[in-house]
Amino acid sequence: MTVVRPFRALRYDPSVVDLSRVIVPPYDVIAADERGAFFDRDPHNAIRFELTRDAADEADTDYHWIRETLDAWRASGVLIQDDEPGYYVMGQRYSGPGGEILERIGFFGELKLEEYESRVVRPHERTLAGPRADRLKLLQAAEANLSSVFLLYEDQDDHLGRLLAEALEEGEVARARDQAGVDYRLARLTDPEKIAQLRAFLADRPTVIADGHHRYETALEYRRQRIGTEGDDPDAPWQSTVAYFANAYAPGTLLLPIHRVVREAAVPNEEEWRKALPEWRVTRLPEAGPDGIDALLAEHLAPLAGLPAFVADRGRGPALLIHRTEAREGELMVRILEDEVLGPVFGLDVEAIRGGAVGFPKSAVRAAREVREGQGTVALYLDPVAPEDVFRVTAEGDVMPQKSTCFHPKVPTGMVFRDHRSRTTGSS
């Protein structure tokens, strides 16, 4: 079902640039006030392929400099293109939430674009028109895939794990370490037998977009435009894009929760919670500040994984553990939170949530600090969504509520690129 081919990547020459200084997080997690630091970090930093230095310039730019920069860096040897098609295996070693050392090993390949209706590549969330329009301008100007879509596949028995781990050890071409302390290894996989094995495995199953919905939908729109002007050439470079693939069940693939902070709505007291949610149990927890919130959730909320459960923290006094004792088939806690809590209890509908009435901090610690600093009235902490839920919901043709889960670690920009004006594809 999923067609993913080897390709000839355009990538940084590690003998010319320090890869650690030029890779960047995905464009949509770089804050406006962080852009300048990446631009100044290295004259060849990959942020030049993603964003303007000043966020205010985005609306009027046509990204014309990207193609010029790409050509200049190729001419100077900063970027090199491999002679032989391959998959690009990437290992990301990092510290997990409990301090344990984890490594996710996945790979980059050339993904044949499929409309969502085919159910081959499946979205798990809805997108916004503004970012799609911006990314389309960039793709039109660059004629290249400069950042990757991040896709998950199901491999509960880890059939590909050994193949990818061996490739990482045997074909390493670069290393890097980012500012968050994640260590990267990049390797080329060119063995025909292993390429065939990998291609066949993915051809039998669909994939789910973890990150990069806007990039994928931009590639689809660009494909439609090119077909409209040039015809439906199946071998044209715009029929595909670059994607990173990871096993959703591998030990190093984390699905972290995204917590909620209600900005202004009044918060029930303990007795009001019980009246508002009569089928739920309400239990006081020991008091904990931001530095102790992760431990508190690990002790009291995590054991309830699989049940509808959350913790409400007003930033003063004890937090409340609120949960049901039974789960109903097909339930999703992030959806329950919208339907039974944010709506009926706080009076916030979907439009209000999208409009900023609810914040989505990057961590429980950040959420705890926000309510204690007056940036919200209550933090609502959740357990992470399970991989099974992601695949179940998307298989049904549905999407998950906004900010349902955080797939970790992120896939950086700068490991591999794909230039449409070069012959980059492998055999079909």
Annotate the secondary structure layout.
Elements: E1 4-5, E2 10-12, H1 19-22, H2 35-41, H3 64-76, E3 79-81, E4 87-95, E5 101-112, E6 121-122, H4 129-142, E7 144-145, E8 149-153, H5 161-170, E9 172-177, E10 183-189, H6 192-203, E11 207-211, H7 213-230, E12 240-247, E13 254-257, E14 260-262, H8 270-276, E15 281-284, H9 293-300, E16 309-313, E17 320-323, H10 333-342, H11 350-357, E18 358-359, H12 364-372, E19 378-381, H13 387-395, E20 405-408, E21 418-419
Parallel strand pairs: 6-11, 8-12
Antiparallel strand pairs: 1-5, 2-3, 4-5, 4-10, 5-12, 7-21, 8-11, 9-10, 13-20, 14-18, 14-19, 15-17, 16-17, 16-19
Helix pairs in contact: 4-7
Structure report:
The structure is a single chain. The chain is an alpha+beta fold and 428 residues long. The protein is built from 13 helices and 21 strands. Strands 1, 4, 5, 6, 8, 9, 10, 11 and 12 form a 9-stranded mixed beta sheet that branches. A hairpin with a 5-residue loop joins strand 9 and strand 10. Helix 4 (129-142) packs across helix 7.
Please bin the fraction of helical residues: 25-40%
How many extended strands? 21
Unreliable residue stretches: 424-428
Tell me the quaternary state: single chain
User: Which range does the strand content fall in?
Assistant: 15-25%
Number of domains: 2
Give the averaged pLDDT, no decimals. 94
- What structural class is derived from the secondary structure elements? alpha+beta
Largest sheet: 9 strands, mixed
**Rg, Cα atoms, Å:** 23 Å
Shape by Cα distribution:
globular
* Number of helical segments with 4 or more residues: 13
